[in-house]
Design brief:
Number of strands: 12
Largest sheet: 6 strands, mixed
Shape: globular
Oligomer: single chain
Radius of gyration: 14 Å
Structural class: mainly beta
Strand order of the largest sheet: 1-6-5-11-12-7
Number of helices: 0
Distance between the termini: 47 Å
């Protein structure tokens, strides 16, 4: 059953589907990641694409609950950042196509909220 979106803010970003799927920079059209449909409860993702565009994704649902801040790091399974408690895939970030990003995402299954930020190293 489809979830009802409470808030959906896309800044210079396009999703392949209503609240998930492949994620694209609208400036250059590059695929910058994949947001897993059924396993997250709330997401806030801000990025700077390699093309210079600044974009963002902010989505939560009518039945979203306040997540529990978690110091654990997400684990990586087949390029997907996953919940370390139950291995639920949450999001794929194609960081090689980004200059930087900041992510906050809540796992629907356990309610843990994870944060991750990266900045491309100068060469």
């Amino acid at each position: 059953m489809a979830r009802k979106i409470r808030t959906k803010n896309l800044g210079h970003t396009r999703l392949a589907a209503n609240y998930g799927g492949w994620t694209y920079c609208t400036e250059c059209g590059e695929n910058i990641g994949y947001l897993c449909y059924a396993t997250y409860d709330k997401v806030s993702f801000c990025y700077e694409c390699s093309c210079g565009n600044h974009g963002s994704v902010g989505i939560d649902f009518e039945d979203s609950i306040e997540g529990n801040a978690c110091e654990d790091e997400m684990i990586t399974i087949k390029n997907r950042l996953c919940c370390p408690k139950d291995s639920s895939p949450l999001i794929t970030v194609l960081s090689k196509k980004l200059e930087s990003y900041e992510l906050e995402i809540t796992c629907k299954a356990c309610g843990s909220t994870y944060k991750k930020a990266e900045r491309r190293q100068e060469q």
